[in-house]
Amino acid sequence: MELIVRPPRNYHVSYDTSEELEAAILRDMRVAAATANPLIADGFSFATRLLPRAGLDAGRFLGARGRAQSPDRERDYFAVMMELDAARVAPWFSRSARKSVYMFDAWPARHAAILKFVADWGVQFAFVSSRQAAERLAKLSEHCTFIWVPEGVDPDRYQRRSSLERDIDVLQLGRKFDAHHVLIEPALERAGKTYVYEREKGKIIFPEREQFIDGLARSRISICVPSSVTHPERAGDIETMTIRYLQSMASKCLVLGHAPEEMVDLFGYNPVIEIDNANAAGQILDLLDNYDSYQPLIEKNHAAVTSEHSWDNRWARIGALLLA
């Protein structure tokens, strides 16, 4: 099998997640990085952007409906896709081959585009990070097999500090859970606690990877809630575990928020301290005052993430299907 590894056209810190998975895949000796003539690859990438401007469908034109009616079994390609960017997989997916992808963020509004992409480019296996999304897409696709494989993490890439070395009391990465934020922010300020959150909408707190990893390691409590709560206009009713939960646990933060049902099923217990909406301010101050008493849960979560929820674990599951 060959893994298609191409940097995104517009870098965002979230793409480090894709790189973590790609690194885990390439540790498998049965997988090699896909190669292509740079001029040809760049030409195909350019075409995927130019054709739509000319009123042509790039997927149908270049993918030729995937040439998947009689795929060449000598070719086997895999791609990790944070977004549906055909420029990342051309020219490889233009060939007759078995093609598989791992997809993040398969939100309802993207389902039609996902179904079109897998049809046009002849994708036969699509591994999706959300259980609900995988189930819905599986019912709508005739030729592509959709399978749920949750997000993972590479624990070795994250740092851990003792509670005494953590100078950030509460961290909320990304878009805030506003209803909770307005309840806890005044209480934390009055108590002299350090609360780091997005103060300007859309401005990333830790824009560099090193800052991000260090910020998690310095934090005692990490607030994590599903995108269905913080981004309902995007996630709709899909409630899924994101890598933020796993990154926080890999960094030995105590996670406060809400655990999606699929996450509780994966762990076999609820690894998250559920928000007490009736006493949000009192709850978070109590957690900080009694932080050391939650160390057993922190250690349990870290051990679970390391042993069962790494990208190596996720790839082992995918590889068992594709490379058996």
Structural features, described:
The chain is α/β, with parallel strands linked by helices and 324 residues long. The chain has 14 helices and eleven strands. The chain has helices at 15-26, 38-53, 58-63, 111-120, 131-140, 178-190, 209-217, 227-230, 232-235, 243-250, 261-267, 280-289, 295-308, 311-322, and strands spanning 2-4, 32-33, 76-81, 98-103, 125-128, 145-148, 168-172, 195-197, 219-224, 254-257, 273-274. Strands 2-1-3-4-5-6 form a six-stranded parallel β-sheet, sandwiched between helices. Helix 6 (178-190) packs across helix 12. The protein is elongated. The N and C termini lie close together (12 Å). The relative contact order is 0.12. The model has no long low-confidence stretch (mean pLDDT 89).
Mean pLDDT: 89
SSE order: EHEHHEEHEHEEHEHEHHHEHEHHH
What is the number of E strands?
11
Largest beta sheet: what is the strand line-up?
2-1-3-4-5-6
Helix content: 40-55%
C-alpha termini separation: 12 Å
Structural class: alpha/beta
Strand coverage percent: 5-15%
Please give the radius of gyration in angstroms. Answer: 21 Å
- Extract low-pLDDT stretches: none
Number of helices in the DSSP assignment: 14
Identify the overall geometry: elongated
Largest beta-sheet characterization: 6 strands, parallel
Topology readout:
Elements: E1 2-4, H1 15-26, E2 32-33, H2 38-53, H3 58-63, E3 76-81, E4 98-103, H4 111-120, E5 125-128, H5 131-140, E6 145-148, E7 168-172, H6 178-190, E8 195-197, H7 209-217, E9 219-224, H8 227-230, H9 232-235, H10 243-250, E10 254-257, H11 261-267, E11 273-274, H12 280-289, H13 295-308, H14 311-322
Parallel strand pairs: 1-2, 1-3, 3-4, 4-5, 5-6, 7-8, 7-9, 9-10, 10-11
Helix pairs in contact: 6-12
